[in-house]
From TrEMBL:
GO CC list: endoplasmic reticulum membrane
Pfam families reported for this sequence: Thioredoxin (PF00085)
UniProt cross-references to CDD domains, sorted A to Z: PDI_a_family
Protein name: Thioredoxin domain-containing protein
Residues of the Thioredoxin domain: 131-263
Main subcellular localisation: endoplasmic reticulum
Organism domain of life: Eukaryota
Compartment(s) where it occurs, according to its Swiss-Prot or TrEMBL record: Endoplasmic reticulum membrane
Task of the protein: Probable disulfide isomerase, which participates in the folding of proteins containing disulfide bonds. May act as a dithiol oxidase. Acts as a regulator of endoplasmic reticulum-mitochondria contact sites via its ability to regulate redox signals.
Membrane-crossing residue ranges in chain numbering: 14-32
InterPro entries cross-referenced by the UniProt entry: PDI_TMX3, Thioredoxin-like_sf, Thioredoxin_CS, Thioredoxin_domain
Taxonomic path: Eukaryota, Metamonada, Preaxostyla, Oxymonadida, Streblomastigidae
Amino acid sequence: MQYEDRTHIHLHPYWYIVFGALAVVFLVRPIVLKTYHDIKRLLNKRTQKKRYVNSSTQPAPQMHCDGDVCTIDSITTEKQAPKIDLEKLRVERQKRLAAKAQAEQEEKWKREKEEEKLRKQGNKLIEGNSQQQQIRVPQHSDDPLQNPWARMFKDPVQALSSSDIFRIMRGNELWVVNFYSLTCVHCKNFEPIYRAFGVKMQNKQNSKINVGSALYPNCQEAASSLGIRGFPTVKLFYKGKVEDFNMPRTVDNLERSAESFRRKLDPW
């Protein structure tokens, strides 16, 4: 009886071809991948160099500002992006805001000027009605003639003209008068503080301090006689005497200065 020899496996030639192809793939694959990446890296370098050369000949994109928003033209490459000057943008924004604030301030001053004009017309009408009713006011009265318009509306700060200031200088009452101008920025900053001082004196019981304001150039004659050259200027009047207010502009300092001026002339 003969036995079959199974120590050697006999494969079909087809399988030898398959195994040989797989061995070639595994051996050649790293070399192929490395060559592929090298070629790709070389092509990328050449493309970037070409883009840089082309971008250097193209004009830089322009920036357009509309109000507070700035836009840049479409950018195709990173080399075309312009350098934005942040300091310049900040300065331009500050200029726009300053111009806007200046326009609003001028509009406010114009409105206040119109109100002052209407107030004067109201004063003339009231004075005319008083003359028709034969209410005579002495020309050289010791007490100043209070502003009828301010008295009508209970304005804590009375608007004064040059004639009113001259009567105050001859009178015996204690007055704090602010000389101001509509074109003065410091006057605008001081106005709410001075009005708060007037309201405090109006609400204070037994207050002997009168608060007034004189608009330049309506008080030009009185301001020239007092030697006023700048604004705002606060003067204290009492019993024919005049004193300058030289303390920091606060409500308490205004009241303290007026009381000190009164005690100086009336120590008792």
